[in-house]
Amino acid sequence: MTKVKTQYSCSACGSVSPKWLGQCTDCGAWNSLTEIAISKTPNSGRWQGYAGASEASIIALPQISTTQTERLSTGLEELDRVLGGGLVMGSVILIGGDPGIGKSTLLLQALAHLPEPDKALYVTGEESLQQVSLRAKRLGVGQMPLKLLAETQVETIIALATTLKPSVMVIDSIQTIFTQLIQSAPGSVSQVRESAALLVRFAKQSGISLYLVGHVNKDGAIAGPRVLEHMVDTVLYFEGEKESRFRIVRAIKNRFGAVNELGIFAMTDKGLREVNNPSAIFLSRTAKPSSGTIVLVSWEGSRPLLLEIQALVDDSHGVPRRVTVGYDHNRLALLLAVLHRHSGITMHQMDVFLNVVGGVKVTETGADLAIVVAVLTSFRDKILDKGTVVFGEIGLGGELRPVPGGQERIIEAAKHGFKRAIVPKGNAPRQNPEGMEVFAVETLKEALSKLD
Ligand code: TYD
Ligand code: MG
């Protein structure tokens, strides 16, 4: 007999309380306690002779036979890339993103282009079957023999999927799905978690690949997909601005491929199109260069990407502000401190605004040098030559440290016609690419001197 009991868990720190409280007693966060269900097995204290436990299930590592993971192509090269080279059979993938960014569109396309689309089941809890069919027509896949189901109860979905035996299933979205086991409303943390757990268990037992769609809500997504990240094999998030034509899908976690891998798509009137040569799409094409901009060769997953970093430094009226879009503002504060200590340039009476063009999020330390250069050129109102690229990590001692993918970054920049690169000494190429001058430097100071 399994008894279901409810408890309350803090969505900020995870501590558990038997009663609902307005404030978490552990971390002090307000209104963060949400209901969770726990099931209790009656004999959980006595392990010996526990039903189902047998030594035969313990196996020595070399005896485990591994077959190559079987992968299916989704028909979208960029999606295959973020998945680590195609969809792994029996894996569970969470796709998160703002409402309206293109999750349903991407998955409908991915299902329709599978080698056997009749083995795909698309479960919609949000839209009616007519809406899905209209979208499919718009995407030009209206005649594909996909299986559709409009249903929100987990038990029914699993029962139907057990008879249908699809090879790939999409749940759109997990926030609309509920299980009978729990009383709380669909979309609540406990419903999302329990329904997802049932679906994941079903997928693992039956070997089907499962996509879960999750909406990210505006306050950091605690009640949304974040609570599911540890349950699934792969987590993909949509990045970028909805206003822009481009859609970026990033792998945050992947048991079958590189993390931070980016897939880049363009939203067209016929759905998402893959962008095959994305390196330079985020560079602005203005004829007149302005101060405070620099091109960074960033490293995303397994390939280089040219990104434009813009900074604006202005007199502060009051407490100086550090505002960033697409970049960590703490890292900016750290870099400003290094700039002060090791180059004597102070910005404590200035506001500093920083923007990564195109809505891309930059997290790698290889962007450090570009950030400092952008800030400094805005501060000095200096316009850099358009053909310059930089990359490199800055240490607290003011030294420039090498970063992964140095050669590939330099080659990529040369391919796009850049003439000058300032890079860490450890990333110096054995031979300069044709038409490009590479300055390999050891310190931040030395790097800044190359700008003059
Ligand atoms: P959708 O996939 O419904 O977003 P989500 O599932 O993440 O909420 O995408 C909806 C947006 O995409 C909507 O604003 C319309 C746009 N769109 C196109 O521009 N072209 C298309 O062919 C389709 C199907 C949608
Ligand atoms: Mg949708």
Automatic annotation (TrEMBL):
Protein's UniProt keywords contain Hydrolase: yes
GO BP: any one term: recombinational repair
Residue span of region Lon-protease-like: 351-452
Keywords (A to Z) from UniProt: ATP-binding, DNA damage, DNA repair, DNA-binding, Hydrolase, Metal-binding, Nucleotide-binding, Stress response, Zinc, Zinc-finger
Motif (RadA KNRFG motif): 253-257
Pfam family, one: AAA_25
Domain (RecA family profile): residue spans on this chain: 68-216
Gene Ontology cellular component annotations, sorted alphabetically: cytosol
Binding positions (ATP): G97, D98, P99, G100, I101, G102, K103, S104
Domain of life, per lineage: Bacteria
Claim: Hydrolase is one of the keywords in the record: yes
SMART domains registered for this protein in UniProt: AAA (SM00382)
GO molecular function list: ATP binding; ATP-dependent DNA damage sensor activity; damaged DNA binding; hydrolase activity; zinc ion binding
CDD domains, per database record: RadA_SMS_N
Domains as described in the record: The middle region has homology to RecA with ATPase motifs including the RadA KNRFG motif, while the C-terminus is homologous to Lon protease.
Family named by the database record: Belongs to the RecA family. RadA subfamily.
Function, as annotated: DNA-dependent ATPase involved in processing of recombination intermediates, plays a role in repairing DNA breaks. Stimulates the branch migration of RecA-mediated strand transfer reactions, allowing the 3' invading strand to extend heteroduplex DNA faster. Binds ssDNA in the presence of ADP but not other nucleotides, has ATPase activity that is stimulated by ssDNA and various branched DNA structures, but inhibited by SSB. Does not have RecA's homology-searching function. Plays a role in repairing double-strand DNA breaks, probably involving stabilizing or processing branched DNA or blocked replication forks.
UniProt protein name: DNA repair protein RadA
Organism: Candidatus Berkiella aquae
Taxonomic placement: Bacteria, Pseudomonadati, Pseudomonadota, Gammaproteobacteria, Candidatus Berkiellales
